Amino acid sequence: QVQLVESGGGLVQTGGSMSLSCVASGRTASIIAVGWFRQAPGKERESVGVVNWRYGSPNYSDFVKGRFTLLRDNAKNTVLLHMNSLKPEDTAVYYCAAHTPEGGRGYNVWGQGTQVTVSS
Fold first, then answer.
1. How far apart are CA 75 and CA 78, in angstroms?
2. CA 29, CA 46: separation in Å to the nearest integer?
3. Per-residue pLDDT at 98
4. 120 residues of the chain, pLDDT tens digit each
5. Maximum separation of any 2 CA atoms in the chain, in Å
6. What distance in Å separates the CA atoms of residue 74 and residue 77, rounded to the nearest whole number?
7. What sign has the CA pseudo-torsion 101, 60, 36, 78?
8. pLDDT of residue 44
9. C-alpha–C-alpha distance, residues 93 and 56, integer Å
10. What 8-state DSSP symbol labels residue 82?
11. Degrees to nearest 5, angle at CA 74 with 97 and 6
């Protein structure tokens, strides 16, 4: 099994920066991709970006392009989400998730989530 632990959330002012970390453990060799997702109060969960676990090639949702960066640290089994130029609408609980073969086509392993609050 794979386990994921996120860290790094908190409170930041509009225009500020914040980095989130997702550390994978367990059967990390089975991971196909890791994604960051977020869910704001009253809204559906949405994808922020995903990165191929082996090749590290990220893809981003349009609303974060140019502001957020995904980086995979091979040595530490970690996927970092660097967020710049934060806006109040970025306020949400951020989750990282892993796609493994057991999950079919979806992300089947989820972290506990970390709150990001952007004050206006």
1. 8
2. 26
3. 97
4. 999 999 999 999 999 999 999 999 999 999 999 999 999 999 999 999 999 998 888 999 999 989 999 999 988 999 999 999 999 999 999 999 999 998 878 899 999 999 999 998
5. 42
6. 5
7. positive
8. 97
9. 24
10. E
11. 35
Tokens of 32: 């196909």
Q: Which residue has the tokens 């974060």?
A: 64
What 8-state DSSP symbol labels residue 43?
Answer: S
For the chain, the residue count is: 120
Type of residue numbered 22: C
Strand partners, 14: none
Query: How many angstroms separate the Cα of 57 from the Cα of each of 39, 53, 60, 61, 72?
Result: 24, 8, 10, 14, 9
- Tell me the residue type at 2: V
Neighbours of 106 (CB within 10 A): 7
